[in-house]
C-alpha cells in the first residue's frame, strides 16, 4: 500500500510506501511533485476532482480505479479522504489491483466468448436445417438432369457452394464447441511430421519452417482431422502475418503438473499436458485487439481476404478437446500461439469419463440390400426439410410416416403398434425432445432401431441417455445418400 498526503494542487507533501513495486510510479513523483504524474493522463482528471473535493471537507469520494503511468499495465485503487479540511490537504491510500483487474478482464472476455459461442451455435444449427433442405432439393434436381443438360453445371455449382457453406457452418460449430468429434489416441510427433509437406506448400518458399520436437512426448487424445485443422489454420495465419518472409516454428514439449501451475493461466488446472507452440516472426498483434482474435468474424485482414473464422475455429476445437489455448505477441517481433492438450492416461479409461450415451456418427459405406419395404417414422420440426427427407426416402421405396414433434411422434408410434423398422428423429423437438421420445419408445420396444439427426454435436445431448446406450447419430447437413446409408447400416446392425 502507498500512502500520500497532498495539497489542493495535488502536490505530494509527504508519503510512504509499503511495497516498492506497487508504488514505483508514485514514488517517482517524490515529495513536492504532483501525484497526478503517477497516473495515466486519461485518469488524471477524475483523481484531481476527488482530491479537490476532499480538501474542501467532502468525505463522499468513492474509490477510484486508475491506470498507473509506468511502463507496465498496472492499476491502482485510490482512496481519497481528509482529516482536517482547514489545512486544505487530503490523504490518499493506493492499493495494487493489477492482478484483480487482469482476472476480471479475463473473466469478462471468457463470458463474452461464451455468449458469442452460444449465438454462433444457434445460428449454425438453424442454418444447417436450411442447408440440408437445399442439398436435398438439389440432389433431386441432379437426379432428374443428365450431365449433358445445360442446367446440370448450374446445379453442380449449387452443390459445391452448399458444401462450402456447410464448411463455414462447421467452423461456427467448432467455435461454439458443438461440432462432432471422433477422438483417438495420437502420437504428436508423427502427426506433425505427416503435416510437414502440406505446411511447406501452404506457407510458401519465403518462410522457413522449423519443427522442434520434445523428447518422449506423452500421447494425447484428439480428433485427428480437427487437430490437423488447428495446425493448418495457425500456419496460414502466421503466413499472412509474414508477407515479406520469416520463420515459422512449431515446438512440442511435455508440461508436467508442477510446471503448469507456474503458467498461472486462467482456466488451466494443474495437470500433465503436452504443449504445442506455433511461433512466427511476423507483424505481431497490437495489445488493443489481441483479446478479440478468437472471436468469430473478427479479422485484421482486408475485406475479402478472410472469413474471420480461422482462429475462432482453432479456439473451439482446442476447447472442445479439453485443451487450453492462449496467445502472446509483440508488435513487429512476432506472435506465439500456445496449445495445451491433457496427457492421455489409458488407465483412466477403465471408467467412462463422460457418463451417458455414446453416439455414433455414420460415414459412407456400402448399404445393406433389402428386398422388403422399410418403414420409417420421421420426426422433424422443420416442415420443408421433413417433406424433402420423406420424399427422398419414398423415392428409394421406403414407407415414411411423418411427425412434427415428440408428442405427435409418440402418438403415431403407438397407433402403428409400437413398431417401425427405424425411427429417424431430430434431437431438438417441441414439448417432448428427442431423448425423451427415445426413452418412451424404448419402453414399448426395447429393440427399436433409432437414428438421431441434429445440427449440433452429439455431446450436447448425450448426457440425456443412460450410460452405455448406443444410438446412431447423423450430423446435419446431410444428403440423401448419407441418410440412406445410415438407415440401412443401423438396420443391418440390429438384424445381425
What would the keywords be for this entry?
alpha/beta; 6-stranded parallel β-sheet; 18 strands
Written overview of the protein:
- The protein is an alpha/beta fold and 496 residues long.
- Helices cover 39% and strands 22% of the residues.
- A six-stranded parallel beta sheet has the order 13-18-17-16-14-15, with helices on both faces.
- Helix 3 (98-144) packs across helix 9 (383-395) and helix 5 packs parallel to helix 6 (224-240).
- The longest helix has 47 residues, at 98-144.
- Residues 19-23 and 348-366 have low confidence and may be disordered.
What is the element layout, followed by pairings?
Elements (H helix, E strand, L loop, with lengths): L1 E6 L4 E6 L6 H6 L11 H15 L8 E4 L7 E7 L7 E8 L1 H47 L7 H24 L8 E3 L1 H16 L3 E6 L7 E3 L1 H17 L5 E10 L1 H7 L9 E8 L29 H11 L3 E7 L3 E9 L15 E4 L13 E5 L3 H13 L3 E5 L2 H10 L6 E5 L7 H11 L5 E5 L15 E6 L4 H16 L1
Parallel strand pairs: 7-9, 13-18, 14-15, 14-16, 16-17, 17-18
Antiparallel strand pairs: 1-2, 1-5, 3-4, 4-5, 6-8, 9-10, 10-12, 11-12
Helix pairs in contact: 3-4, 3-9, 4-8, 5-6, 6-8, 10-11
Alpha plus pi helix count? 12
Work out the helicity level: 25-40%
For the record, give the distance between the C-alpha atoms at the N and C termini, rounded to a whole number.
75 Å
Strands, count = 18
Uncertain segments: 19-23, 348-366
Task: Give me the strand/helix succession.
Answer: EEHHEEEHHEHEEHEHEHEEEEHEHEHEEH
Name the average pLDDT: 78
Based on secondary structure, the structural category is: alpha/beta
Largest sheet: 6 strands, parallel
How much β-strand is present in the residues? 15-25%
* Morphology: elongated
Name the strands of the widest sheet in spatial order. Answer: 13-18-17-16-14-15
Rg over CA atoms, rounded to whole Å, is 30 Å
Amino acid at each position: 500500500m502507498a500512502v500520500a498526503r497532498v495539497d489542493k494542487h495535488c502536490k505530494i507533501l509527504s508519503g510512504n510506501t509499503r511495497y516498492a513495486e506497487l508504488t514505483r510510479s508514485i514514488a517517482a513523483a517524490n515529495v513536492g511533485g504532483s501525484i497526478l504524474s503517477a497516473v495515466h493522463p486519461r485518469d488524471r482528471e477524475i483523481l484531481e476532482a476527488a482530491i479537490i473535493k476532499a480538501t474542501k471537507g467532502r468525505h463522499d469520494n468513492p474509490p477510484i480505479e486508475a491506470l498507473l503511468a509506468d511502463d507496465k499495465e498496472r492499476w491502482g485503487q485510490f482512496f481519497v479522504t481528509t482529516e482536517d479540511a482547514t489545512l486544505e490537504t487530503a490523504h490518499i491510500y493506493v492499493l495494487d489491483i493489477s492482478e484483480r483487474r487482469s482476472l476480471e478482464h479475463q473473466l469478462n472476455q471468457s463470458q463474452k466468448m461464451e455468449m458469442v459461442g452460444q449465438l454462433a451455435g444457434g445460428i449454425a444449427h438453424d442454418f444447417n436445417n436450411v442447408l440440408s433442405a437445399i442439398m436435398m432439393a438439389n440432389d433431386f434436381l441432379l437426379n432428374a438432369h443428365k450431365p449433358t443438360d445445360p442446367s446440370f453445371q448450374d446445379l453442380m455449382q449449387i452443390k459445391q457452394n452448399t458444401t462450402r457453406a456447410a464448411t463455414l457452418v462447421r467452423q461456427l460449430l467448432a467455435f461454439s464447441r458443438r461440432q462432432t468429434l471422433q477422438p483417438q489416441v495420437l502420437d504428436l510427433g508423427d502427426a506433425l511430421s505427416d503435416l510437414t509437406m502440406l505446411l511447406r506448400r501452404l506457407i510458401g518458399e519465403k518462410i522457413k519452417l522449423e519443427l522442434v520436437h520434445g523428447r518422449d512426448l506423452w500421447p494425447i487424445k484428439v480428433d485427428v482431422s480437427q487437430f490437423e485443422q488447428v495446425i493448418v489454420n495457425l500456419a496460414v495465419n502466421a503466413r499472412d502475418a509474414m508477407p515479406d518472409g520469416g520463420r515459422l516454428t512449431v515446438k512440442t514439449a511435455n508440461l508436467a503438473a508442477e510446471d503448469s501451475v507456474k503458467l498461472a493461466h486462467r482456466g488451466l488446472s494443474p495437470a500433465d499436458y503436452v504443449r504445442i507452440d506455433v511461433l512466427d516472426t511476423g507483424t505481431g498483434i497490437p495489445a488493443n485487439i489481441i483479446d478479440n482474435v478468437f472471436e468469430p468474424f473478427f479479422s485484421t485482414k482486408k475485406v475479402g481476404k478472410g472469413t474471420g473464422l480461422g482462429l475462432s475455429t482453432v479456439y473451439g476445437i482446442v476447447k472442445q478437446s479439453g485443451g487450453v489455448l492462449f496467445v502472446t505477441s509483440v508488435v513487429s517481433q512476432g506472435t506465439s500461439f500456445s496449445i495445451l492438450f491433457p496427457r492421455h492416461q489409458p488407465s483412466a479409461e477403465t471408467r467412462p469419463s463422460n457418463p451417458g450415451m455414446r453416439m455414433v456418427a455414420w460415414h459412407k459405406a456400402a448399404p445393406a440390400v433389402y428386398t422388403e419395404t422399410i418403414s420409417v417414422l420421421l420426426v422433424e420440426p422443420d416442415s420443408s426439410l421433413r417433406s424433402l427427407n420423406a420424399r427422398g426416402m419414398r423415392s428409394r421405396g421406403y414407407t415414411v410416416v411423418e411427425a412434427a414433434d415428440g408428442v405427435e411422434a409418440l402418438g403415431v408410434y403407438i397407433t402403428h403398434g409400437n413398431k417401425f423398422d427405424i425411427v429417424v428423429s431430430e434431437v431438438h423437438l417441441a414439448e417432448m425432445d428427442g431423448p425423451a421420445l427415445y426413452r418412451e419408445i424404448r419402453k414399448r420396444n426395447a429393440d427399436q432401431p433409432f437414428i438421431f439427426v441434429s445440427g449440433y454435436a452429439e455431446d450436447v445431448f448425450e448426457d440425456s441417455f443412460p450410460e452405455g446406450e448406443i444410438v446412431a447419430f447423423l450430423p446435419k447437413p446431410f444428403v440423401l445418400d448419407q441418410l440412406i446409408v445410415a438407415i440401412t447400416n443401423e438396420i443391418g446392425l440390429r438384424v445381425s
